[in-house]
Every structure is written in C-alpha cells, then in structure tokens.
From TrEMBL:
The active site is at H16. Pfam families: Glyco_tran_28_C. PANTHER family: GLYCOSYLTRANSFERASE, UDP-N-ACETYLGLUCOSAMINE--N-ACETYLMURAMYL-(PENTAPEPTIDE) PYROPHOSPHORYL-UNDECAPRENOL N-ACETYLGLUCOSAMINE TRANSFERASE 1. Its EC number is 3.6.1.57. The keyword Ion transport does not apply. It comes from Paenibacillus phyllosphaerae. Residues 184-328 form the Glycosyl transferase family 28 C-terminal domain. Keywords: Hydrolase, Membrane. One of its GO terms (molecular function) is hydrolase activity. It is an enzyme of class 3 (hydrolase). Substrate binds at R160, E263. This is UDP-2,4-diacetamido-2,4, 6-trideoxy-beta-L-altropyranose hydrolase.
Length: 349
C-alpha cells in the first residue's frame, strides 16, 4: 500500500496532483492500493479521486500556509491508525528534509517527487523529470542518501491513462497550423490564459480554430470565458476530461513550461511555452534547446507582440513546425518502459 502526500489549490496549482494521480493509476492497475493525504483539497479534486476509486484523507488546516511540524504530526497520526504502508510518497515544495526525517520511522520506504535540484532529501527513491541527462550540471546538485534510487529525466514522466490511450491516435503532423490549443494549467495564477486569448484576437489568426482550456481552480475562468465568447474563432472548455483528445486534434499548443509539457511532447504536439514559475524555466530552456518547443521566457517579460510573432513564424514555416513535432516525440522515447520499471520497483520493494 502507498500513501501519497500532495496538495492542490489555486496557488499551488494542479501539476503535483496530476502526476501523483497518474502514478496512482499505474500502481492501482498493477494491484497496489493507493490513498491520498491532502489539506483543504478542492471539491472537484475530491470528486475526481473518488471517481477513480482512490480514498482521500483530509488533514486539518490550510494548504496555503503549511507548517511542516504540524503536518508531520497529522500525517503520522493517520499512518498509525491505518494498516502498515510499504510506501509513502510526497510531492510538495512545503515539505522537505525535516518532514521526511520525522516521517521515516513510520513507513518502510519513502519516495519523493520533486522538480527542483536545490532541496535536500532523505528518501529511498527520488523522481525528478527536470534532470535531463548525465552531463546536466543539476545532477551534481542533487543531495540524497547514497542508497537512494534516482529516477531522472522526461522518460520518467507520469502520464494519466487518457494520454496513454490517446497515443495510439496521435497523428503525424505536416506542420500546417489550423487548430491551436491554449492551456496554462489547472489554476493559472499569472492569468496567462486571458493574455494569450487577447493576443490571438489579431485578425491575422481569424481562420484558426482556437481551443482554450481553463482549469476548475482558475479564479479568473469566468473572465476567460467572456473573452472567448467575444472572439468568434475561440472555443472555451472548463476543467475538461478531454485534454488528451484536444492535444491530438491540435496542430500547436500554447501553454506554460510545466509538467504538461511532457504530455504535449508525448503526443507530438509542437508548442510555444512560457515560464510561469521558477521550477518551469529549466524545462522551457531544455525544450527550446532540443527544438521541441519555442520557449519565450519568463511570463512577465513576454508581450502579446512576441507571442503573435512566434505564432506567425510557425505558421509561415510548416517544415520547422513538423520537425518540432518529431523532436518533441523523440524526447519521450522509452517513456513506457521507464514507467513500467518505476512501477515494478514500487511493487517489488
């Protein structure tokens, strides 16, 4: 059995929960029971976990202002009252080495998901998709116990079942751009969805069909919906369960440089990405360097003019856009095998 300690909110975002849910789906399919531990989890997340057959225990307090000691005490209390867990996995920037040390005596094995390279960990397994190869200087900065198993790089990206199913429908793209997908994650705290819609109001893009997705935790989703309604060629989607389908249908994605980048790459979707948080910059830079996406940089320095120029350039050069699709897919080569290895490690330890 595995307990998964993760939170999601408008401030924290949805990425941590999404990848933990993907892992739980993989493990559950192999016969392992997975249960979630969270604080003040929004109702739509509770419904989603329940619909997928996962129990969720709500810890007391607010996820926005977390105290690691109080969290450790509450977590240990749950662990003591439940059956012995083989694993506890944590995916949380607010819970670090001190929390892990407090938890260790109460679980057999401890796993951590983290896309930062500057944090100390005392775990048995560390998963980090933001360390890209053995020459990556970030690898030298990882601080973990000598026995810790490192699962590093995009090939260990955890993709939900809908994306694995959609891979069979992913098409070879010729670089023609007729349909664009705009999605900046579950909460979009920087309001980049609205900024992108406003940039795409340009008459030069009037022949494009633009799908815009706003997550359930997006506090400005009504504003985004109104913006979309005012633009004739834009279709608004709220908290859709069809994200993989929308990616397969799209010719280009526009979004943040977070963990959703690996979903776009997995389905071969060329992208324009913008960094919305510190942990995303490395991913955006890597994708740009590998010609798997165009990274425009930090959100506060990206103008509507720059976004429009990047889109114009890709429309004008189908060959470059098609090559970007190939490069994106290539980054995820071996993903299925690596994830199967990960699942077997958790099942057999």
């Amino acid at each position: 059995m595995m307990w998964i300690r993760v939170d999601a909110s408008a401030t924290i975002g949805a990425g941590h929960m999404m990848r933990c849910l993907a892992l739980a789906e993989h493990l559950s399919a192999s016969g392992m029971t997975c249960r979630f531990l969270s604080r003040s989890l929004p109702e739509h997340w509770l419904r989603m976990l329940n619909a997928r057959g996962f129990e969720s225990v709500q810890l007391p307090g607010d996820s926005e202002s977390i105290d690691w000691q109080a969290d450790a005490i509450a977590t240990i209390d749950v662990l003591k009252r439940s059956e012995q867990a083989e694993w506890l996995l944590v995916d949380h920037y607010g819970l670090g080495l001190d929390w892990e040390i407090a938890i260790r005596p109460h679980v057999r094995k401890l796993a951590v998901m983290d896309d930062s390279v500057s944090r100390l960990h005392g775990c048995d397994v560390l998963m980090n998709t933001s360390v890209f190869d053995e020459k990556d200087t970030a690898l030298q900065r990882l601080s973990v116990p000598a026995h810790c198993k490192l699962l590093l790089g995009p090939a260990y990206s955890l993709l939900r079942q809908e994306f694995r199913r959609a891979s069979g429908r992913a098409r070879s793209r010729d670089g023609t751009i007729l349909r664009v997908l705009v999605s900046f994650g579950g909460s979009d705290p920087c309001n980049l969805t609205a900024a992108a819609v406003q940039a795409l109001e340009d008459a030069a893009f009037s022949t494009l069909h633009i799908d815009v997705v706003a997550g359930a935790s997006n506090p400005r989703k009504e504003e985004v919906k109104e913006l979309c309604a005012a633009v004739g060629h834009v279709e608004f989607h709220e908290h859709t369960e069809r994200m993989a389908e929308l990616m397969v249908r799209a010719d280009l994605g526009i979004g943040s440089a977070g963990s959703t980048s690996w979903e776009r790459c997995y389905l071969g979707l060329p992208s324009i990405v913008i960094t919305a948080a510190a942990n995303q910059y490395g991913i955006g830079h890597y994708l740009h360097r590998r010609k798997a996406a165009i990274h425009l940089g930090w959100h506060q320095f990206v103008s509507s003019k720059q976004l429009r120029a990047a889109l114009h350039a890709l429309i004008a050069d189908p060959a470059a856009t098609a090559a970007m699709s190939v490069q994106a897919s290539a980054l995820m080569d071996g993903c299925e095998g690596r994830v199967a290895e990960l699942v077997q490690h958790f099942m057999n330890e």
